Structure formats: structure tokens, C-alpha cells
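Problem 3 from the worked examples.
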Amino acid sequence: MSLPPARRRPATALALCVAALALTVPAAAAPEPVAASATAALPYQDASLPVPDRVTDLLSRMTLDDKLGQMTQIEKDSLVPQSDLAAYRIGSVLSGGDSTVSPNNAQTWADTYDSLQRTALTTPLGIPVIYGIDAVHGHNAVRGATLFPHDIGLGATRDPALVQRVGRAVAEEVSGTGIDWDFAPCLCVARDDRWGRTYESYGETPELPTAMTTFITGLQGETLGAGPASVLATAKHYVGDGGTAGGVDQGDTRVSEAELRAVHLPPFKEAVRRGVGAVMLSYSSWNGVRSHANRYLVTDVLKGELGFTGFVVSDWAAVDQLDGQSGFTGTEITTAVNAGVDMVMVPHDYKKFLTLLRGEVTAGRITQSRIDDANRRVLTKKFQLGLFERPLTDRSYTSTVGSAAHRELARQAVRESQVLLKNDGGILPLARSARLFVAGKSADDIGNQSGGWTVGWQGRSGPVTDGTTVLQGIRAAVTDPSRVTYDRYGNGIDSGYSAAVAVVGETPYAEGRGDRPNGLGLDQEDLQTLARLKASGVPVVVILVSGRPLDIAGELPGWKALLAAWLPGTEGAGVSDVLFGTRAPTGKLPVSWPKSAAQEPVNDGDGKDPLFPYGYGLTYAGTDPTPTPTPTPTPAPTPGACTARFRTASAWQGGYQAEITVENTGSAPLTGWSVDWDLAGSTVSSLWNGSLTTAQGHATVRNAAFNGSLIPGATTTFGFTANGSAGTPVPHCAGS
């Protein structure tokens, strides 16, 4: 039995084209729409049949040009004329980071989508396009959409259930514009904060991105297409893009296979388990071999070992990068497709691409079976999404774009993402009646607080979209807004203020332009603003708006408090909720905070001493104006009972990867645990989510700072790679 349609779209007769009469139409000629019957004329048009049967029937009716078109994804603005979408049987359209519509609102996006879809349905077989977009922190290409914290902030929440709700909200807003495919989530494990995509990562250990794959369930639903507003999710960028040497974007990840499997692969493994529909490859290389050319990683590991049944899409023009020269070649295309790429993001020169692809197939360098496999994977997702039955926008979701409910959810996510790093003398939370001076370039700038991928690829400063700035949130929170003075540069402050709130940090960027090989310090404007505030003698509270930790150790002694706000998005009032104690801070660092950029890379368990360790975060002892800050968590030791279960995750010649799950089986909470077992001659080469010691052939792992507290019935998992044979160890667990 086939899955129910994904979205309650208006039905269209164009989806029921009678194909048998039109199979001889050449791909280069735009066919006229074929009149449809009232009922399904062919098996692939019959929604009551199982999806595999529908795919098989459709494949049997497709010409080679039909199949090559399904493997092609092009940028919508490169379609000149739009009829080429049908003439070349294009299977997918995308909007790049700077692609937009005019006027930029949800209604126009939906109209644009429907226009393109109607064109696609004029082909003899009436195969709908699937439309992709980078909705990476909300439907961020659409002005007025709800923008959530970027992934690094969501990682700080340590709240997978919240992230799933965020994914559901994004799915509704994306569906409201017709679009059915989101290039998210990013499951990279960021290991060097100099990398310009650090904010796209949930954190530096595999545990955090793995936990946050709940975003996939939020987008797709429990099963792709099993309910309304089901949007295809994409796990990206496979694999190891967060581990490049020096944090260089599109660089080389020079690690052993054991480390690649231990650090970078686990989030993708969990994404596959959750049924993610697509995987996007990384521009980066692994030990000199580009991901788009790596058959072992794509076909053998992802599709074979992990059992991924969705389709693999290339990144923007990435196949064209394989030979280091501009312009597609047949060799590049053959290398990528044979490595396992099912759909190529061209995105512009689709005519040349299709000519070359056809030539490679005709010459036998790409087999027909590889073409059919790619098509089966793509078409399966189109059928599961219900695109053949309801291909047009479900306008009932259009009004959800920027809705009050979604903005309130985003505000909650902002509150939970705040990480309090310093609070001398309990200056926070601030009294609502306090006389405050607010300064800094990001205090009243929604572009800065939203970061890159905000109504444009690189983002920009200024009023780029609708929302609430941090300053607006502060003024709304105090009892008397007239007692709040604002000057961007800190001019005019005197000693009569209770506190000076400086909102400083980074201005927007995305990959490439965001790399910081020469340091992570504050800019001159920030430093001068902070100097003016400090010179006044007023206590300085710093709110740091940034996509990663910055080099602030030299400035920190002059600040009374430091709140890491990350890139909160459009709902700046969530920052003021924590600032004034409506919500005590609960966020914990998703990355280690370096003492200086020279310490990079610095990561949990590497033996380095950061300024603030991974998992660090203070809270308030209460919500009164003068609480005593305490590290979180700090429960008193309580005896408890626990068990440990050993599982070999994977093995290879001379080594293996294993996971051990700790469960609190007692009736009292655990505040810490340790697990020991006999290594049976093997040696541990790397470990995550715990602290390892070895002695006399035994291993002992104690909890990390963030996963020691377990309520009765709760579990946590740590993992490791080792040299040797796993055997069948029986681990022993002790709780405290």
C-alpha cells in the first residue's frame, strides 16, 4: 500500500497526463499539455498502488532524455525561457542563496512555484519537479519568515524535542510557499572555530549533531509523506566538512578512517536511521579525495553500509570543481555519477551538462543500471511526497509564514540558547526598573543578529527582514522605556546608569567569506565602544552576537557579565527574557571556547585547557535581581545504580568502533557514573562523550561534564574507536 500524500495541495488534472501517446516527443521540443482523464490512466498514476510498483511502471515508460532530466537540478533564474523546464525534462529546480522573487513575500514565492510546476507537468509523462531551497534557520529566503537561531545556538539548548518543533515550523512555512525540499539540516561536526560555517554546526562532538537529527523528523514527519506539510530533509554535508585542516572551507580533512567514523559519520548514520530523504555531499576532501569523487564513502559506506535508500545530491556546481577547471567535462560527470551522485546541482549550464551526460551514457562510461538506480531513488521520493497527486502549493500554510505561533517558538529557542559565561557579583538578571545604557553595532540590527543565510546568501547588516531586535526586546521588557538610553558607539554615557549593555560581535557572513585564518578578535568599532563604556565606570554587561566563540580573553576582566547569544534570528526578545530573568539561562556551550585563536583547534577531550570548556554554562540561583551565579548543573551527589550495554557499531581490518549506553536503573538520580571493562588486548585510539583512563588492560570511562546527571530510567551513550578486536566485553557501571 502506498503512503498517503504528503501535503493537502489542490489537485490538478495536469498531473494525470496520458503518457502512452506522447513517448515519441523529443526532449528538445516543448510538448503541449495532454488532456487528462478523470481517473488514473496508467499504473504510475494510480495512488492506490505501492510506491515501488509505481516507480517501476514509470521507469519503463521513460526515455533516456526523461531519465537524464530527472538527474538534473537547475537554478530557477537560469531557466530562459521557462519552457526549457519541460523541453529538457528537468527533474528539479532550486533557489540559490541570493535567488529571490519580487515582491519578496510568501504569496509571490507560492505563485512562482506553481508556475514552474505547471510547466513541468506539460511533459508527456507529467513528472512534477521537486523544488529545493536552503531553509537553514527558518525559511530564510523569504522576507517576513520566522528566523530561528542558527544551529550553533540550537546546539546550546541541548533540547532535541525543541529542535524537532523548530523543524515542524520550518516545514509549515516552506510548504506555504509550495517548496517541497529543504537543504537542511547541516550535520557537520565543527572542529575548528576559524571555519566560516561553524554556526551551521550544532556542536563540536558527534553527540550533539546526532541528537539534533530530530530536525529531520520535524521536517518530514515520522514518515516522509505520511502527513501534511511533509518536506524532504537533506543531511549535509557528507562527510567531514567540519574537520578540514586549519578550518579552511572546502579544504581537506586529513584524518584516519577511524577518526572519520568516530567523529564525523555518526550524525549521518542517525539521519539515515530517521529516514532522511536526501544527502548532500561536501565540497571538501578526505585525505586528498573530493567527496563528490569518493565512491567508497558515497556508494560503499553511505548507500551500502549505512543502508541509505534516498538520493544523493551534489552541492552547488561542485561536480564542475573536480578537475580544478571551470566548465563541465564528461570525465567530471562520469566520476561523480559513478561515485554515487544521483542528482547534479548544475546549476546554470544545463544544456551543456545534459549533452555531456548523454554522451557519457551512450559511450558506456555510465551504465544504464546506474542511471536507473538514480532515477528510482529520485522518483521514489517524489511519489512518497505526493507530488504526482497534489503538485501545487497548499495555500492553507501560506499564512503560517512569520506567524505569531512560530515567532513565539523562535523566542523560546532564543531563550534556551543563551549561554551565561560570566556573572560577577550577580549583576544579572537586571532589574526591570534599572537605568540602562545600551550600545553596540548589533543592539538594534536585525541583520547582524540573524547572520548569514538571511534574505541573501551572505546576509547583511540592517533591517533586512521583519522581527524584534535586542534593543527592542530590552525596551519592551523594562517598566519604563524612557530609562533606556541607546547610542551605537557608546557616546554620551555617564556614571548615572545601573549598567551598560554592549551588544557586539560579528557581522553577517557565510562560507568562504566567513573563514578567519588570521584571528577571531572583536573589530575596532566594538573595542572602541567597549572602551567608552568601561571608562564611564558603569558595570559592563556584554551580549556577544556571533556564529562561534571569539577571542575575548583579554577583554573579559573588564566585563561584569558575558552572555553568548550566538545568532538568535528575528526574535531578539528572547535575549531580553534571559537578561531580565524571565527565564534563567540554561544553555551550555556546544563548542569549547578558546583562550585565543592560536589555541585552535580546541575540542572536548583533546587535553587542551580552553577559556570555557565544552558544556559550560552558568545559571541564576533564582530570578530575583541579585542572584548568586552557580555552574549548571550542580546537584549534590546522590548514590544510584546503573547498567552499561556494549555494542559494536562497525568493524574493519585491525579496528572497530563501539558504543556503550549507560542507563540509570535506580530510583534516585545519578550525578555521575563510571564504566569499566576488559579491553582484551585492544587499545582505544579516540573517545567521545566521556573521560578515559586505562590500566592493566582495563578501560575506565567517567562521564563528561554535560552527561553525568541521569534521572531514573534515563540513558546516555559514549563511543570510542579502538585498534584490535572488539570481542564481547561485559562492561560494569557504577553510579554516584
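Problem 4, a separate protein:
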Amino acid sequence: MSSYTDPLHLNEMSLFRELQDNLSKNIKDTRNILEIRDNVLYVWNAKDFCVVTLNIAATRGEIGEDVPYQKLRPTDPPIFEIKNLLINETGTQLALWGNMGLVLMELPKRWGKEGMFQGGKEEILCVVYKFDHFNSTVEIRKVRWHPGSTNDSHLLVLTSENTFRLYECELGGTPRLIKSWRVGRMPYGSPVKIPNFSSLGDTAVDFDFATPTLRKPEMFTGRDINKNNVIDWNQIEWPILVLRGNGEVLTVHGNLLLDNHESPMVSASLTMYPPADDNYGIDSCSIMCLQTTPPIVVIAMCSGKIYHAILLREELNDGGDDDDADRRIWSQYGSTYSLCTQDEALYVYECVEIELGLFFADTDEKYSCPIHLRCDKGNKSRYFCSHNAGIHMVSLPMVSQLDEYINTPDENEDARLPSLLNQSSSQYLICRRTKHTGTNEATPILGFGLLQEPCVLVALLHTGDVVARSVIDLHYFPKIELPEPIINVEKKVHKEAFDVYIKRLLKRETSQPIMKIGSKSMTLRECLQLLYHSTDIFRKEHFVRHDNVREEIGKKVHALKVMKTHLLKELDTLMEAKKELTQTAERLAERYEDIKDEQEKLAQRAKEVLRLVNYKEPSMTPMERAEAEELRKMEVKIEETKIRLLELKKKSTQQAKHAENHECNDRRKEIVFRGDQENTIKNNLGHITRDIKTLITEVKKLEEEVSI
């Protein structure tokens, strides 16, 4: 396969080569056995009875290399045919279901390099739980995980008996049936000539969850619901939209997750505006609710028509007639379900008709088949349709308009209501049928997933081939959050951006898909006719629009060049002004430095003057004056003591000299004193010693008092 249809070279990997050999050749209907979640691809291998996983993000960095894959092998393989693979939001459990059964597989932990299961083990044995509430006469119509489950473990199942079953699937435990209720009469077997409810389209074929609402909104009137502990979690419910084959849409209200005996309330069929004779088709096959405000409901028909409607609260007249009341309220005694009055209505604002295969003329026989709807979690403004004829992508400009209208402040009177001029558009991404494809030739899509950043669609064909195509939405750009400037609302002008204008010019009604034609060979005339048809589409839908865009871009470039010349002149003027301002700033900086130095000098002089003024000011208190007088007296005493010390030092020096002289005289001659002389000398010396000690003591006391 060419690199255009397989840029990731997935068909060259051993996983898909093995899967291609193991696929059954008798598959007739479109299903979904492939899923991508958190850059991990999951696909069901029916022949090997296991789920094969591949880190598909690693293939981008290792183009041409065979990336290893893992097998999640169930402990008890299911014996029925698996048609759908469904993973919960937390990636802990995986539901495998078909028309005849449902099993639940616990997914192992991921760690190590590239986040592989159990660090990269090739085969992992996974615990599987079976649901024992289904028999051979009951078929499963739809299975969805409940979005309001706090631990992401509640599974809702719709069966062919017009019955809902809600299961609690906790990790490590067997699924437990919580509630079961009906949304219509149970179909029963009938003779061939008598039509039953299934043939009349009175059975439920699909369902989806609407946006959450309050069970009793009147309890919270006038209260701020954004504050903590205002709304009880039990007061929040997720309404369910149920689609019947005849186009009727029912709603189921009630908090299903509460483990109580309260039965859900099933409303009568929603009124659809504007009314239509055929109730917008009698071959409805799929429904999807986009989580917007207000919610947008998408209803698909087998003929290729897709209706877009807004779910709003309906205002009923109090004085309505009895027929209207009978149509809205119905109950049947003794039945297990009842229809109650519904307050909502569907307001259909557009219809998109997609091509189920490529046909060359209006007289060609049209093809019809069930259409499976799937939302894009990364972009609410688009969704995908898979069917036996290929894959479509539908863009919804209404989503961005509703978001802009809802987020507009209340005081903004210029807020515009959503416009219907920007209609939805469809792109044919992958085509599987043409007018030359046989009626009984099977061309289903077995599953597809979306690899984000950038968005790449990976689809598995019934032949086992894998098609990977980049999804480019010309009507959507990622929203970049910028700081909100202060804008005067009264003078705000709504101007169309140039890229939006170019997108509007490039918008086309038809697209050229990738064609995967069956094994049946085509004649040269048929190939030439197909080539002429494709060439005509390019001439009418592509080349003309591109010529117009080229002309508009040329005008824009010329205008930008003129603006550039003007801005360059303005830039030169601003540079001259900048140079003058720089010189002026330098002069002012020099003057500032001089003024600053002079100011510092003046500040120092003022400080000195203030100090001198405070010193000369006779503002001493009596206590301060007493202390000052005492200090003056102490200074006088200190001076006297210093004088007496000097005198003592002189006397001490003289005595030392006298002692030396006496020693010298003693050496010369020995002087003999009498007893009375010796006593007199001793007494004098004793008196002198005592006087000296007394003086020394007084000096020390004075020093301690003066703190010298």
C-alpha cells in the first residue's frame, strides 16, 4: 500500500499481517473491533481469541521498524462473535460484545518503556467476567459506559426486548445487575402476515447520554451552584436519549447510579420541530448527543441523511387541547414501564446528506446501510460516520457558535445568536463502494481510531488492510487562550479574520475520498468514466475555488506590501525620534547625577545643622540636669585623684631612690641602730604602708564610680 494511504507503514508490521490472515472472509456488516486510547491501539483477533495491543505512537518515531506488540489473552474466551470493543475512560476495563453476548476484561497495569502492559510481556492472561442475563433469544443493541460513574465501573446495556440493564462492574468482582427497566413493549413472535413491533420500527435501536441536569432544579433557585456543598451528588442525573427505528426519541430520567428501588422515568417521544410528515425518516439507525450547552443531538438514517437538532426545554400552553395532552401522557396499568410528560423538545436546524458510495449520475441506484456515529473527544466541532461504504467526517460550526454565545457576558448587548448561514459540511475520507460494486459484495469497515496531535485516522478494512489518513478540518482551529484586553463593548467591531474568509471560500460540498475498490476488475470504459467524474469534481469544486483564493491572497499580499512600505517609512521616522529621545535622555541623566550629588551634600549639611541645634537647645529635664551635675562632680574628683596619684608616684619614685641609696650605704658600711630607732622606723614604714593602701583603695573606688 502506498505511503499516502499508510504513512505509518502499519501494513508492514507483523501485527497487521497476522491479523489480515486471521480475519474472517464472511463479514458483511460494519463493526468496531479497533480502538485507540492513550496512544495504544486495541484490536480483537477473532481467530486467536485475544486482544492485541500496540503502542501506535512509537511507530511515528520508528518508521520502517517492526514495533513489538502484546496479546491480552482472556482466561475464558467468549464463544459468540465479537463485533464491538469498548474501553472505559480510566483504561482499566474493556467490554467485548456482540449481538449474542457480552464479556468484561480487566486490563493489566502499564509501566516501563513506552508504557507497555506489565513492562512489555508478550502474552498476558487477563481475568474475564461473563454476563449471565442474556439468552439465545435476546440480542444486544448497544453498550455504553455510564459517564456519571464515580469509579468508572457502571455499564449500561440495551437489548432487543426494549430493556435496559445497568451493571456495576467493580475491579476484582463479578458484574452485578443493579437495575432493569423497559422503554417499550416487548416484541413477540407473530405470523408472517402480521407485522411485529420490530418491522414497524417500534423497538429501540440506539441510545446515548445527554448533558447532566439537576433532578429538582426548583430546590436550588436563587442559590449559587458553583459554591461547595450546595448540590448533593445524588441530585445530579444523566438523561438518556433512546432512539427507535421509526425516528422517535425517548428520554429516561432518574439517578440510575443510586442503589435504591426507584424506577427510572421514561418520557413519551420528544416533539421535533418543525414537524415533518415522515417524522424525519422511518429508517433511523443511530443517535449521538454532543456534550455542548445546550446539547446537540445527531440522528442518522440508513439512507444517508443525518439530522442535527438542539435539545431545549419546550414551553407548553396551559390551555392546550385534549389531543395534545393525550399524545404527551400515556400509561398502561399492569406494565413494567410508563410514559410520563416530557418537558424537552428537539429543534432540527439542518439536514446533512452524505454519499454512501461514489455515483456518477442522479439516475444511479442509491445504496443504503446502517450508519454508526462516533464523536471526536479532542474536538467537539466534528464527528465521524462509519458504514459499509466508507468513513465520513462531518464538521459542525454550530458548536463553536453556541460556545461563543454561552460564554458572552450578560452585559454585552452585541452578542449574536447562532447563525444558520454557516452550514455543516461533510468530507468523504475513505470510500469503499462505487456504482460498479456488486450489491452483495461486502465492503464494511471493521473499526477505526483516532491518533491525536496531529490527528490521524487509522481504519481497518474488511480485507485486513489498514488505512491511516491525516484528518484536516478546514473549519476548525485550536483555540488559543490569550490575555483578555480591556475593550470598550460599545465600540467593539466584529471583523471577519482573513483565515476564516479563506476557509469560507475553500468550503465545498463534495470531497474526493480514498477509494478502495473490490477485487472485481473494471473495464477501461468504467475506469475512464470514473476518471472523468473525479476530474470534473476537481474542476468544479477545487480548481475554481483555489483560483479565487489565489486572487484574494494576491490582493491581500498587495495590500500588505503597501502597508509594509508605509510602516517602513513610519519606522524610519520613529527611529529618528528614538535617537533624539536617547540623546535627551542622556542629557537628563547627567543632570540627574549632578542634582543627586548636590542633594546629598545639602542633606549632610542639614543633618549637621540639626545635630548642632539639638545639642545647643536648653531643653534638659531636672533629672538630666542632676545627672549632669553629678557627672561634673565626678569629673572634678577624677582630676583630684589623678593629681594625688601623680604625687604618690613621685613619692614612690623618691622612696625607691632612697632605698637604693640606703642599700649602697649599707654596702659601704654597716650602720647599727638602737632598739628604739629601729622601732621608730618600723612604725613609720607601717604608717606609710597603710596610707598607701588607703589611697589605692580610694583610687580604685573612684575608678569604678567613673567607669575608667
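Solution to problem 4. The longest helix spans residues 524-616. Residues 634 and 640 are 10 Å apart (CA to CA).
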